[in-house]
Specification:
203 residues; Rossmann fold; eight-stranded mixed β-sheet; 17% strand
Length: 203
């Protein structure tokens, strides 16, 4: 399944960014209602953010990839990331696997918005130097559903993070899915929620 995007105008001067951590609870107007609609009681009570929370209002593509990935899918993923960059598409992901991180590097060389969701707390988290200019410009948002006590990434936190990322997305792109793995489970969950799904090799 292929997606066609329109270029998104982005006025970075009007987008306010903040390098400190802010908390968005359910009563805050910036809390994404789509999380409650899709996750119900599993929706996080609050979100921690660094950067421009207005990016949450944009149409977003979620990016996922299993830890191991065949070569043809890797090349296709890089091509797709370049297309997103050129078309100004907002991409949301944990950007944890090696392929996801390389896609992030491609995206950061452009001007389109990106939402980065670590599977841990972002309080006291060191922001990589390559991210900082984009955060300051208001085109990168760091988003977490985890409090300061969750300072180490675990498989459980990764699963919860991925569910949140999928729920926030308008569509999902899978680079590669390992049969029986967490990505396969996420694919089933997203399909049940009616989220459009596409990816390499007709996923």
């Amino acid at each position: 399944m292929n997606a066609v995007y329109k270029s998104m105008p982005l006025n970075l001067k009007k987008m306010k960014s903040n390098s400190s951590v802010a908390i968005i609870d359910r009563e805050n107007r910036q809390y994404p209602e789509i999380l409650i609609k899709r996750l119900g009681k599993d929706a996080p009570d609050r979100l921690w953010v660094i950067g421009n929370p207005e990016l949450l209002t944009l149409s977003k593509t979620a990016l996922f990839c299993s830890g191991r990935c065949p070569g043809d899918a890797i090349l296709a993923a890089y091509d797709q990331a370049q297309q997103w960059r050129e078309k100004g598409r907002c991409v949301i992901s944990g950007f944890h696997s090696a392929i996801e991180r390389e896609c992030l590097n491609i995206l950061l060389r452009g001007l389109q918005p990106v939402v980065i969701c670590p599977a841990r707390s972002i309080e006291n988290m060191r922001i990589p130097g390559i991210w900082r200019p984009a955060v300051a410009e208001g085109r990168v948002l760091m988003l977490s559903m985890f409090s300061a006590s969750e300072h180490r990434m675990t498989a459980k936190l990764s699963t919860q993070r991925n569910q949140m990322v999928a729920a926030l997305a308008d569509e999902i792109f899978f680079i590669h899915i390992t049969p029986g793995g967490r990505s396969a489970q996420l694919l089933e969950q997203a399909s049940n929620l009616g989220i459009p799904i596409y990816g390499v090799n007709g996923v």
